[in-house]
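Bug report (template v2)

What were you trying to do?
Predict the complex of my protein with MRU.

What happened?
Run completed; filing so the output is reviewed.

Input:
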Amino acid sequence: MLPTVAWENNSVVMIDQRLLPGKEVYIRCRNYKKVVYCIKTLAVRGAPAIGVSAAYGVALAVLKSGTGDKMKFFQEVAFAIEELRQSRPTAVNLFWALDRMTARLNSLSNLPVLEIKKKIIEEALLIEKQDILINQKMAKNGAKLFKKGTTIMTICNTGVLATAGVGTAFGVLNEAHKQGKKISVVACETRPLLQGSRLTAWELKRAGIPFRLITDNMSCHIMSKGLIQSVIAGADRITANGDTANKIGTYMLAVLAKHFKIPFYICAPTSTIDITLKTGKLIPIEERKAEEVTSLKGVKTAPDAIKVYNPAFDVTPNELIAGIITEKGVVRPPYIKNLKKLFKEIR
Ligand code: MRU
């Protein structure tokens, strides 16, 4: 199986996550517009995977430009980057990757167009390669937090399908399992789009990690029975104070975890931390179409012409988070101070 997103023969290949687990179909993107389409429709999803895809989208825009005129070339690419920016609003990894590609482009402006093309493809490949390494580091840092025999609840999909590597929260679970910690997982199905049941259950099964699947509304009951010792989730954007946007339902798990005195962890690369936003109130939350709530896999589950809410993400307040696992280590409260310190060290 190919990685989730890969650069192959001057095009981007990605597994169509909308069809999993039923079918393993690969989409080949030959231009950046197809990448925009894949991100918008969730053929590719998960914050780091969106970032890598966007970087490859820029590489395609650069590669496919037919003009030799430098000014026109930069205008064309800037237009493509703007379109990629509009594909999804919440995961900051998208903007992080586009900003990094833009900075690289600007640093190359004195070179001939052909040379720029080569170096931009190299930069996108590097983003993918670095994500793989970052995933491995997070997995090691996070696995230390779990004692032998822990049962851990998780939500959405944070694995191979959501990143270029082994995953964020899923990577931690996988590492703890490989280290022989005899962990088991309870995966929430993650309505409305079922990333938990369609994708995480698929990955857990393939990895041989013992698990049970539950519907999201079973989480309280399962925790109340003492069946869960820890909760771990990924992130789409973490603000300077540690507030964390992640898949809708994450906040609910954090509140429950607090009630039952269970530690709740977030695992995300530092590229998911948006230090420019003070609090989670400032994070743009994607609203998706009503049909995702009023139907399930094309079958209507609600009457016609009704109003729904369909936010794709929620924001967990920092006070509910026991630790943020990153590739640089586990950040603990107070997040305002400790995230600032982490960013000083990175720069
Ligand atoms: O709407 P999605 O499927 O892109 O949402 C994904 C999530 O919320 C993940 O938990 C998050 O991106 C972290 S993935 C490593």
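What did the reviewer find?
Residues 138-346 form a domain with the Rossmann fold fold (CATH 3.40.50.10470). The longest strand covers residues 11-15.
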